[in-house]
Specification:
Helix content is about 80%, strand content about 0%. It is built from eight helices and no strands. The longest helix is centred in the last third of the chain and has 55 residues. It is globular.
Length: about 230
């Protein structure tokens, strides 16, 4: 199982990148302030887990999960893909920083996407689908899940080891949502006050958080790609 442990170690940084995404955390907090919090919260959690698991599993299988051809990970095209993704994430980081600076001059909260204004009125099914999209189809999270799946395939694990690594990665990637939902269900009014403070802070700083996150992973992918090419 040492190969599985090594794979998990390589995957966890990508799980951290998914976990600290601010918009899904804001979305689940809005859901928990709705009249359907006790069904909407668990539905959002289920959707997030499913989105991460499916995206990572598909990437793992496409990369040859368990049957990867020797040397595929060192192929030149994989390094160019890393360079391209790295540059794309760095460009997105700059754009998020510029938007943060522009809105910071007003001293208020950054405007949220329009679709988030009605999240607290959505049904549990619609809430679960929202979480699935935010975690499984969002370009940044999809790229991170894809890299995690490729890292797992490169270690050529057994099926049992692969399932364990995917489970650990999925749980780590969705840990903030898990903590928020369970904390709300167990903490009542006290948890609600803490979540409101968290929502306010993220509303003001989510662009800055995203800029830092995109910068870190953009630089990581770019350095890995350039090192492979050179």
């Amino acid at each position: 199982m040492s190969g599985t442990g090594d794979a998990i170690g390589q995957m966890l940084p990508y799980a951290a990148g998914v976990a600290v995404s601010p918009l899904p955390i804001i979305a689940v907090i809005l859901v928990l302030f709705s009249s359907r919090a006790r069904t909407g919260g668990p539905a959002f959690l289920a959707g997030s887990l499913l989105g991460v698991a499916v995206a990572t599993t598909v990437s793992f299988l496409l990369a040859g999960g368990g049957t990867a051809a020797p040397g595929w990970e060192s192929a030149t095209w994989t390094h160019w893909v890393r360079v391209g993704l790295g540059l794309l994430l760095l460009f997105a980081a700059v754009r998020h920083w510029q938007r943060h600076r522009r809105h910071a001059r007003t001293g208020g909260e950054h405007p949220m996407p329009r679709w988030m204004s009605g999240v607290d009125r959505w049904s549990p099914l619609k809430t679960a689908l929202l979480a699935l999209v935010m975690y499984g189809l969002d370009p940044k999270n999809l790229a991170l899940c894809a890299k995690a799946g490729q890292e797992l395939a490169a270690h050529d694990p057994t099926w049992l080891g692969g399932l364990l690594a995917l489970a650990v990665f999925t749980a780590a990637a969705c840990l903030p949502v898990l903590v928020v939902v369970l904390g709300y269900l167990a903490g009542g009014a006290r948890a609600a006050r803490a979540l409101e403070h968290c929502r306010t802070w993220l509303s003001r700083h989510h662009l800055l958080v995203m800029a830092a996150l995109l910068l870190a992973f953009g630089a990581l992918l770019l350095s890995h790609g350039l090192r492979g090419l050179l």
